[in-house]
Amino acid sequence: MSTQKIIVAIDGYSSCGKSTLAKELATKLKYSYIDSGAMYRAITLYFLRNHVDFSDHSKVLDAIANINISFVYNEQTQNSDIHLNDENVAPYIRDMIISEKVSEVAAIREVRSFAVAQQKRMGRKKGIVMDGRDIGTAVFPDAELKIFMTADPEVRVMRRFKEMYETNPHITIDEVRHNLELRDYIDSTREESPLHRADDAILLDNSGLTKEEQLKIVLNWVTEKITPTPKGATPQY
Ligand code: DC
Question: Dihedrals φ, ψ of 81, to 5°?
């Protein structure tokens, strides 16, 4: 097994399957996985619960001072849950009410500085896979491997719809489509670290790929970035 640890930065549009890939990759490599979008969602949850007027920068700063976010490993699900001030908020952050506001909150400079500073600290020891919108451009501009994911918009809508339908059978495909289009628009046109492909990011269009196929492709990219494998030898992770 290679002992060289790298940082893998995965960015892309909403519902491209970034989290699925990032999680599987981290498990395979025995790296930590950080879902940076979950942090913006947890901050949004705090703002909504506490009626923070996020058009007011000083109120945003006051609120942020009271927010503590951590990722806590859950033995049962074998995943990390996001905790907001010691409460496991993983069950709430995917609700539509959060999805409707999160891009607006994530566009606020003070919110981004707070989240990005924590994300940078998490990557200090490397051995991390992080997914989001600005990981390869702002959080880890020196990441050894940067991937920019994309997929056909209708494929993304149906993926997100199936995911949301499990917890909310009243959701409609049009609602999901509208939310994805709006978030993509806000995420890629905002002033602060807008979503764009880093010059050195590899493009991965997974519209026609199975999870297994995409994982295999990315594991090969990881192999190329770490100690070169002698010709003919099978890479070990
Ligand atoms: O990946 P997601 O859909 O859970 O992300 C939620 C929102 O957070 C998304 O609309 C954009 C924002 N986000 C961001 O601005 N920067 C990141 N690194 C991750 C997410």
Answer: -95, 145
